[in-house]
Amino acid sequence: MTERYEVINREEGHYPISSMCRWSGVSKSGYYSWRDRPQSQTAIRREELAMMIKDVFERS
């Protein structure tokens, strides 16, 4: 489900939300709930690690 929400989020300015939700088979309320949910600690940590890895890679 998250993958569908991510695609909708990425394309939000190009197509109407209601159409993309219908095409994806998800509810608008589910999408908005996902979009407005605070980022999890795991996701925050993954972003931090990705930045650290990128930094090490660029310095090598």
TrEMBL record:
The lineage of its organism: Bacteria, Bacillati, Actinomycetota, Actinomycetes, Actinomycetales. It comes from the Bacteria. It comes from Actinomyces oris. This is Transposase.
